[in-house]
From TrEMBL:
GO cellular component term of the entry, any: mitochondrion
Segments of this protein annotated with the region Disordered: 101-123
Pfam (any one): L51_S25_CI-B8
Subcellular location, record wording: Mitochondrion
Primary location class: mitochondrion
Residue ranges of domain Ribosomal protein/NADH dehydrogenase in the record: 40-148
GO molecular function, one term: structural constituent of ribosome
Name of the protein in its database record: 50S ribosomal protein Mrp
Amino acid sequence: MVGIIKRMTRLRTLLAIRIGPGAAVLPSEVTRIHMDFARDIEDGHYGPRKFWRICLPRLKYHNPAVPMTVNRTNDQAGPALMTIHFTSAQAAATIKTEISSTTNAQTSSAPVPQSRAGPPTERTETINMKHRSQSEILDQLLALTKARVIRPTAEEIKMIQEIEKQKVRSEKDALLTAEVVAKRKREEAFMATARGGGEDLLS
């Protein structure tokens, strides 16, 4: 049982990063994505933060060679912008973008140094993320870049269904276990009370 739970946990973790909002393959012309937004969620920065937490890791997973950087500022009243860097189709075909050196497995928290090798930026597009939900930000990013959205395969859908079934079974097992433990504690308390009453009668 423990082995099944561990396996399902690993599958859930893998599927969580492979599919879902943000799972998309960017065209080779996209050379970098950079986000600027405030650390706190007030004043329209909630959507950008959610996008960073939920969508950006999946986008990075499917595009490991594209630097994706984040700059979180203390300027709560400041802008929340996403800048997308594009190169020409010719440059993208002849120069491979260097894989980003990030602070963790998913995204960086600082801009990529200017000395980093890669195709030259020919143009940039900017998305105003302020007061927008994560889905609105994602939709605009997909539209601007013409990224190919990754849909779950039949096998992945089957795995998701099995994980959900296992989750329901685990919740039922947890409830049954809790009921058994509670019943045992009630019986132990009753026996302790009964023993105490018997001792009083003998004395």
